[in-house]
């Protein structure tokens, strides 16, 4: 019983193009190039801040994420869901995986651990995305 439940479908994925449910033949993706650009900018800003404050206090002054997002002209980089046929043609730079791999509780945990290790993940809306799609 428990096992059956844990295997059952736990997510509801809606296509960002046609607004219909995506059960098969679709994917979840994010522009990881954009997120990586933000990550690099954040590190650079962090170093500048650390140098600027080096004489006044300890290193490792946290960067101001809000400032950075505003300054760089980016908002949080959004995760998308598309049917294979609905996705943009140009997704060469996108990081993603098929919807078939994101269906059960175990799938969600596995992918949260996996993408949680990406340096750029904090510059995307991953947490909100997961909250939105789990039932
Ligand atoms: Zn679609």
Question: Could you characterize what this model shows?
Answer:
It is a single chain. The chain has 135 residues and is of the alpha+beta class. It has a domain at 2-36 and 75-133. Helix content is 41%, strand content 12%. The chain is built from five helices and three strands. The chain has helices at residues 2-7, 32-52, 65-72, 105-116, 126-133; strands at residues 26-31, 79-83, 94-98. A three-stranded antiparallel beta sheet has the order 2-1-3. Helix 2 (32-52) packs across helix 3. The longest helix has 21 residues, at 32-52. The radius of gyration is 18 Å and the shape is elongated. It starts with a helix and ends with a helix. The relative contact order is 0.25.
Total count of helical runs of at least 4 residues: 5
What helical percentage do the residues reach? Answer: 40-55%
Strand order of the largest sheet: 2-1-3
Distance between the termini: 19 Å
Low-confidence stretches: none
Indicate the structural class: alpha+beta
Strand elements, count: 3
Radius of gyration: 18 Å
Strand percentage, roughly? Answer: 5-15%
The major pleated sheet works out as:
3 strands, antiparallel
Please write the string of helix (H) and strand (E) elements: HEHHEEHH
Residue-averaged pLDDT, rounded? 82
**Compounds present?**
zinc ion
Shape: elongated
Quick synopsis:
This protein has a domain at 2-36 and 75-133. By secondary structure, it is an alpha+beta fold. The longest helix has 21 residues, at 32-52.
Helix and strand topology:
Blueprint: H1 2-7, E1 26-31, H2 32-52, H3 65-72, E2 79-83, E3 94-98, H4 105-116, H5 126-133
Antiparallel strand pairs: 1-2, 1-3
Zinc ion is lined by residues 15, 17-18, 20, 82-83, 86.
């Amino acid at each position: 019983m428990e096992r059956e439940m844990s295997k059952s479908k736990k997510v509801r994925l809606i296509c960002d193009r046609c607004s219909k449910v995506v059960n098969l033949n679709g994917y979840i993706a994010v522009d990881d190039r954009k997120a990586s650009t933000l990550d690099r900018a954040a590190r650079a800003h962090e170093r500048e801040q650390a140098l600027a404050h080096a004489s006044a206090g300890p290193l490792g002054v946290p960067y101001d994420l809000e400032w950075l997002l505003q300054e760089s002209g980016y908002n949080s980089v959004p995760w998308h869901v598309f049917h294979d046929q609905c996705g943009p043609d140009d997704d060469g730079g996108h990081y993603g995986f098929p919807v078939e791999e994101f269906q059960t509780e175990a799938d969600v945990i596995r992918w949260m651990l996996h993408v949680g290790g990406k340096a750029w993940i904090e510059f995307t809306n991953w947490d909100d995305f997961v909250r939105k799609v789990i039932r």
